[in-house]
């Protein structure tokens, strides 16, 4: 199961934070900071798995991350997930964002976190569903729900 | 109204929206906090307005702020307001905010129940969807209980989008409300075969997640998952299923056998690395479970791969290890990491196979990537031998020096200790070396593992008697050195080693060279800065030392010396008496009085040494860590009963240092606050002084120097008297471990030379020529003699200790509640709570019909209740048996990998086209019917002669297996498979009424090859069936170039690879060595499924043996019966009733006479051969349901009379129905 999805930039500013386990806000920030420091230390050409951020769970948990330009995408998962699968998932996720925003960049994520939409056109929702479907085929109990949220949160119109 | 709206929108124009907020935050980099608090004030204003759009906007901004770490729980009520907005846009914002910020402690959450229920039953799928999504994040036990039924109805929603979400959220519901698992499980299981792949994968995910925690409850689903695994093409689903199987195989080794073949096929065929990796992983798990199931597994797998299936497994194992090596050698760091990860799984059971890759793993230790180094470290554990231990540890020590991060360093430290101490110090040849390694490790600043090192020191010193002298000298040096004391102020764990050092020096003080010196070191004022539990040990052991010195002095006749020592004690002990730590205080004051008494005696010239040393006579032996737990409670002893009424909390302090040490971990946090809070302490001291001053009975002592600095709050102010040390402050023996390595090498070299000499002599005597062998460095570990004669004392265990290692489960594990037997039939009381229709508006929704139907179906049940209750016990038993038997059955009808009791053809000629059941099965059925009768008889006599019955059964079984063995040349390994299966059958299903049957029917055979096939409806594609053909090579030649050509009919067509024409054959994707069988699957597209049909086909192949190759052919006819178009689909009685009521089904019936078989078995037969599932069964009447691949519903009502069975069927297609009934008649006629 996925425990958390964190997206932050090269300076550790959170861009998207989603926990599937309840943590108080300050702990969430602490986790983001800690994860950021763990990930920052690592070169780009070493492996994408990290064991044991101390805050989320014990030895069963792993951090799986990818670094795209200015953004880090970090998934915290337990041992029921396939490591390579999650890497693929991150890729799919980023591609989805890319489709949403056409060449997604950090600014998109910043500004379109959510937007007022007078009414979502039907087509757009369908589009979101298609992506979500692709995702859920892709994924585990938690993720699809999440992606939909993301999608809706990120969708701009 | 219109005006209001206009006003609203104008208002909104001036509000900040999310973008403005984000921009604003970016523009106020310097005073971000101030800006945000300003914004929050604005938001609060906005939330006060009536306009829902303004509120939604405000909540939207809050969501963003929440992400930045601001608490927004104060707005929970406003969020609920926005959630209940009628407009989807706002609703979604509300749910998003709720999902981010609500949790179980949010009190307003209970207000949402009705709102969520309303949204769940909303006609718009998006409202429903967003509600489900949100709910998943903040579901509470109350919400779960109240909404479980609604969500369950949504699992059968028409839209896959909703179904999928509903299935997923059920997992959360189960977690919060475990009672819902059993009632909801059948439907969840049903979703595994949902036509929509998304829903299907969701169900797979949920079940996998459940099964991971409590695998044994889900074993019965294995056949279903197996089917999915062989039919699914979705890699994500495959990965999940394969992972699940990995968790299941340890519980059921037979499952592993079944899995290996398809898994290796996947390994060879898949291009997806992730899938490949998971396959390898699961194959490893399978092999491990198989080998641990076999006695002497390591021997049979690694050394003697000559019998049965062992060579096969051995080769699989090699395959896996090879694949992993490729992964590790890959330049992609991710693969390297995963390779190492999987390797460590093998390591646990088959260290030898990993050891051959030592070079590679040592190489990984130098990797620049920490994750990889950590994994390699894990593997090192299994790499060591007596020979290379020193070398490996030396390498690790250099890493310790280089390590930058503390986590990695700590990891290294624990690994070094793990490696050295594993299996009772098996690999350590020189304990002096090990002690010096431990001493070197004490240099580590800031490690958390001081207690680990200390425990090792104690353990070694106590258990290895020969090393005590050396250990004591090292420990006294440690006590002497200041660096540990100095670091203790930093509250890091390394000072823990002083605990061990003090104890060792005290306990084994007879080995001390300069006891007096050590005594002084232990009485230094700085010692009082150590944590309390260490001081306590100091105090206790000071006395031991003291006793020792006294004895020495008295024996030497130095009375003055003895008195001087006593004086030293009297002078120094008060510093401990004033300790804040209770334990230290108590011990110190006790001992101080003792010493004072001794002083008096000494003044009278009474020899005291003898008596003092009897205080510590006898040896303390190590006690095994779990010894206490393992003493069984004697019968009749109630540990919870009071012996006397409790007076006060009397804490029994265990005097044994070792026991104290084990408590230490829990104790430390207790001590910490008192230490940390120096101010508080000072205040207390002050108060105490005040009290003492006012207490006329308190004798005030003149303020001693020690006392003065005790009063000072911080340790910094303590005026430390620097002791002039004659010894260097450096810890002696630091570079010693290296010396040992060298020494050891020399020693070994010498040993080897001697040995070689001896051997040479011997060999020259015996034989010449094989001498080279001895000079090879293949010396086994056993050849290395330990440096000193080591006597490792085993830990003491109490008498009649229980050998079992109970695995203590964490009682707080939330998944434990989900450990529920799912195979038990549902009881009437187990229903999800159904909310009564409180709000009229929701009752309009279509989903609300369901509870009503359920009520209907309840009524007849009540009537039969009495009758039922009588039978229930029996039923339950039977059902359970049936389940167990189903699984056993499935496991034993292994198709290719373990073709165990596969259909055993009698010598009679079998018709080439395998119509429904081959004859032998019918025979089986007959014997089985007899069995059943016997059973019935047996049950009558049950109480009288159970033994008799058992015997009878066993006999029968034996006879049957014998018969089988005779009748047929068994395929490779099947005997073993049977042997493996036997104990389970005997144990679990003694009364098993049905013998294993196979769904694989004979297709054709000749002297070369035997074909059996099974036709299954495809789950995913309409109008497709999968034909699984098992080819078994029964000749002594290799069969290759196999091709299957089938003549398509108008109605049925074989799916061929692209570009091949109708007349081309389809190649079989494997070759068959002699005696091997394998399965190939082909997909056929069927236009109309209402009629049975046959297809002609030919298998052509080349049989090659030593004499040459021949071209051979075998004709066959594939028979697609109507039953093979049906897929087993579970159905609820309410849905079933609805279906029957709908009236668009046509009806037909058959009746068969002369049936002797029991009804239970009859139903089992129908279920098995015709893919039906039982909806409901009452006495000798049952309703059954199945669905065709094209979606025809087929309902059956089966009634059993005296000697007859009547089957009434209803189906949406009358032709299909009549054909089905014909087939069924044929099956029943054989019963």
TrEMBL record, chain A:
Subcellular location: Cytoplasmic vesicle membrane; Golgi apparatus
Protein's name according to its UniProt entry: AP complex subunit sigma
SUPFAM superfamilies: SNARE-like
Family matches, as InterPro entries: AP_complex_ssu (IPR016635), AP_mu_sigma_su (IPR022775), APS3 (IPR027155), Clathrin_sm-chain_CS (IPR000804), Longin-like_dom_sf (IPR011012)
The keyword Membrane is annotated on this UniProt entry: yes
Primary location class: membrane
Domain (AP complex mu/sigma subunit) ranges: 1-135
PANTHER family recorded: ADAPTOR COMPLEXES SMALL SUBUNIT FAMILY (PTHR11753)
Taxonomic source organism: Macaca fascicularis (Crab-eating macaque)
CDD domains: AP3_sigma (cd14834)
Binding partners and assembly: Adaptor protein complex 3 (AP-3) is a heterotetramer composed of two large adaptins (delta-type subunit AP3D1 and beta-type subunit AP3B1 or AP3B2), a medium adaptin (mu-type subunit AP3M1 or AP3M2) and a small adaptin (sigma-type subunit APS1 or AP3S2). Interacts with AGAP1. AP-3 associates with the BLOC-1 complex.
Gene: AP3S2
Protein's job: Part of the AP-3 complex, an adaptor-related complex which is not clathrin-associated. The complex is associated with the Golgi region as well as more peripheral structures. It facilitates the budding of vesicles from the Golgi membrane and may be directly involved in trafficking to lysosomes. In concert with the BLOC-1 complex, AP-3 is required to target cargos into vesicles assembled at cell bodies for delivery into neurites and nerve terminals.
UniProt family annotation: Belongs to the adaptor complexes small subunit family.
UniProt GO BP: Golgi to vacuole transport; intracellular protein transport
Alphabetical keyword list: Cytoplasmic vesicle, Golgi apparatus, Membrane, Protein transport, Transport
Sections of the chain in a coiled coil: none
Transmembrane regions listed in the UniProt entry: none
